[in-house]
Specification:
The complex is a heterodimer of chains A (about 325) and B (about 325).
Chain A: H1 13-26, E1 31-32, H2 33-39, H3 54-69, E2 75-77, E3 90-92, H4 95-98, H5 108-119, H6 127-138, E4 152-154, H7 163-172, E5 176-181, E6 188-201, E7 204-211, E8 216-221, E9 230-231, H8 243-259, E10 261-266, H9 271-275, H10 278-281, E11 288-292, H11 296-304, E12 310-314, H12 316-332
Helix pairs in contact in A: 5-6, 11-12
Chain B: H1 2-22, E1 28-30, H2 31-38, H3 42-54, E2 63-65, H4 67-71, E3 74-79, H5 93-108, H6 115-128, E4 137-139, H7 149-157, E5 159-166, E6 172-185, E7 190-196, E8 201-206, E9 210-220, H8 223-227, E10 242-248, H9 254-258, E11 266-267, E12 273-279, H10 285-290, E13 296-300, H11 302-316
Helix pairs in contact in B: 1-3, 2-3, 5-6
Classes of the chains: A alpha+beta (about 325), B alpha+beta (about 325).
């Protein structure tokens, strides 16, 4: 905490951030670092006209980051007449980048749907970010209106300790590194990834990205990450992926799943019968259904929940995996 | 502590931006109404308004605040001519991506909103964010072809429903009457939370086990049902529950979150974690633990270990015994 001269009002951080935003937004030509530190509340009390202001400068750098995370971009500009003299750098917030587009309005129903989308994260990794987004969007709404969406409480279930780190790294386009366990061999290896997107399939979260060492896009299941994810925040952000490349990689995963079909025989009117909605999905009246799956280990887990109710007819490796799991549990509890 | 202080500062700043984008110059609002609108505590509205009023740049205050009125619960902000932000701010990348992901999720649930409606919102979020970008989160539809529209209608009209329901003992009750209160969508199943007239209690019903659902136009949802408090948890532990120690490897970490440990999990080695939970009946552990095929195990007590072992043994020989059962 900074020293506060006795009797003087201590400027809070939200006030400092807000004052900085006002000043940089309304200055016609931008403000130099000296002008900012010597005139904006929250800096000026500690500013030394003839001394070192290193710690204040660091404070300003951190504030720029906080503003960026709140959607406000502080741009450093060298005026053209200064001819690349970086001593003359000024800082500015561009109004058109700051302001929500004037022609885009939200109806009460849209606001209610977005609120529901935000609430879906309740308690989850992204609830803070989603909630802050909603607070901002609500500034477009008329105070007093009511939502017409009621009676539904959707919850995104995401139990992954690394979810938020990865999601932030995607937004900030930062390279991540983590230890990953190969489910086939059990070998743990360090992976370096430019993360592109998170996806949930069958309740499992995957991160798709560019695997730097393997030089190609790869999918990783978050639950197989056995370390904390470290984010390379010192290097420059990686280039945004080409949307067509992202689409190609996601299509490939779907095509892979299309080829993985399990044939299951399900006991009529059992729990599994309802889980797999056999009455609507079976072709003949024999309780046999075909299900596509992304990952045999995950599929085996799901099937293990319904012992005696589901028989894996095909493929054999899936049937074996289910049985091996049961044996392992028996051994572990012997 | 430092972390949460930082979050509060950033939340406050965010709220200040939202407030000045919303308030009309000089108009009178009351604190509770603003708190409700922005879904924050009343004290946060007061603090945010005070913070705005204290700002002074070069002897000039962008916002004029009536501090006495504020103490009484009235908010009136006068925008100065210079340096007073009054625009609605854009979303940050993280805010946009969190909301976009929430929308993706809503789209994956049948019967919440029209797909076009959600796609329109996705466009809006993308354009309200500083740069156009590709989606960052994809959520595949819940693998259930259910339409929850009829249930939502019943909830909105405050009417009871009738359906045939198969419970987890595979018994079907015909014409069960439920007073629907809320639909809870989880990753694998959709539940109807409602008041069961037969049991005279709150119950969770899996929607995939409901058949022949119809709205009962003449049966209003009772006051008893409306007054019942819905908990966020589907399962509420009881007093005489048994304490069980579990150990999980990364693939089974989900158990730690699903089962609500009574204390922080403790690391056993680099990757395994140990934690204690309370269960009503150890037989329920069989299925929970067995699904992970070795990534989760029960450490103690012995009766719980045996329950899991019996469950897995029965699973290996489904013909040799009755198929394994959860507790009734």
């Amino acid at each position: 905490m900074a020293e506060t001269p006795a009797g003087k009002y201590k400027v809070s951080k939200p006030e400092r951030l807000f004052a900085l935003t006002c000043a940089l937004l309304y200055s016609k030509v931008g403000l130099s670092k000296h002008q900012i530190l010597s005139s904006i509340p929250g800096y000026m009390a500690e500013y030394k006209p003839n001394g070192s202001n290193a710690s204040l400068e660091r404070k300003f750098e951190r504030d720029k980051d906080t503003l960026r995370h709140n959607g406000i971009n502080v741009e450093a500009v060298i005026p053209p007449y200064e001819d690349e003299n970086n001593q003359a750098t000024v800082y500015v917030i561009r109004k058109e980048e700051f302001t929500w587009p004037k022609d885009i309005k939200l109806t009460a129903r849209q606001l209610a749907l977005l609120t529901l989308a935000s609430d879906a994260w309740a308690g989850g990794s992204l609830s803070t970010a989603a909630n802050k987004g909603i607070v901002k969007l609500r500034s477009m709404g008329v105070v007093g209106e009511d939502s017409d969406i009621s009676g539904v409480a959707p919850r995104i279930i995401e139990h992954e300790p690394n979810f938020r780190e990865i999601n932030n790294a995607i937004s900030d386009r930062r390279v991540v590194q983590f230890d990953y366990r190969n489910p086939n061999t059990g070998v743990i290896e360090t992976r370096t990834l430019q993360p592109w997107l998170l996806r949930q399939s069958e309740g499992m979260w995957l991160v798709l990205g560019f695997d730097v060492k393997n030089d190609q896009p790869r999918n990783f299941m978050l639950r197989r990450i056995v370390s904390r994810v470290s984010v390379g925040s010192n290097s420059a952000p990686f280039d945004a992926p080409d949307p067509s490349e992202v689409k190609k990689a996601t299509d490939e995963l779907e095509a892979f799943a299309d080829k993985q079909i399990a044939k299951l025989k399900v006991k009529p009117n059992s729990e599994a019968w309802f889980k797999y909605q056999v009455d609507t999905k079976q072709k003949k009246n024999d309780g046999v259904i075909a299900i596509r799956y992304y990952d045999k280990f995950v599929m085996a887990e799901q099937i293990r929940e319904y012992p005696g109710q589901v028989e894996v007819l095909e493929p054999k490796e899936l049937a074996d995996l289910v049985a091996e799991g049961y044996k392992q549990v028996v051994d572990d509890h012997g | 502590m430092a972390e949460s202080k930082k979050l509060r500062d950033s939340d406050r700043f965010n709220l200040m931006l939202a407030l000045v984008g919303n308030l009309i110059d000089g108009a009178l609002y009351d604190v509770p109404e603003l708190a409700k609108h922005f879904r924050v505590p009343e004290s946060e509205i007061k603090e945010a308004i005070k913070n705005l009023g204290f700002i002074e740049i070069n002897y000039h205050s962008p916002y004029g605040i009536d501090f006495d009125g504020l103490e009484e619960g009235d908010v009136a902000v006068h925008f100065g001519d210079k340096m007073a932000i009054q625009e609605v701010p854009r979303l940050s990348a993280r805010q946009a991506s969190a909301l976009a992901a929430g929308l993706v999720y809503l789209k994956s649930i049948p019967g919440i909103a029209d797909v076009e409606e959600i796609e329109k919102l996705q466009e809006i979020i993308a354009s309200g964010f500083a740069k156009t970008k590709t989606p960052e989160v994809i959520i595949n539809p819940i693998g259930v072809d259910l339409d929850i529209r009829i249930l939502r209608q019943a909830i909105n009209k405050s009417l009871a429903i009738k359906c045939d329901y198969q419970d987890n003992k595979n018994e079907v009750t015909i014409g069960r009457i439920i007073e629907p209160l809320r639909i809870d969508v989880h990753s694998e199943f959709i539940y109807l939370r409602g008041w069961c007239q037969t049991k005279q209690a709150l119950r969770s019903f899996r929607i995939d086990r409901m058949r022949n659902t119809e709205i009962l136009d003449t049966v209003k949802i009772s006051d008893k049902a409306k007054q019942a408090e819905l908990d966020d948890e589907l399962y509420v532990p009881a007093e005489n529950d048994i304490q069980v120690v579990l150990e999980v490897q990364p693939g089974a970490y989900g158990l730690m979150y699903d089962l609500k440990p009574i204390a922080e999990p403790v690391p056993v080695n680099k990757t395994s974690r140990r934690f204690t939970i309370k269960v009503g009946d150890v037989r329920n552990l069989g299925r929970l633990v067995t699904r992970y095929g070795g990534l989760a195990k029960v450490i103690a007590p012995e009766e719980a270990r045996k329950a899991v072992r019996d469950f897995a043994l029965a699973a290996l020989n489904p013909e040799g015994s009755d198929s394994p059962k959860d507790a009734e």
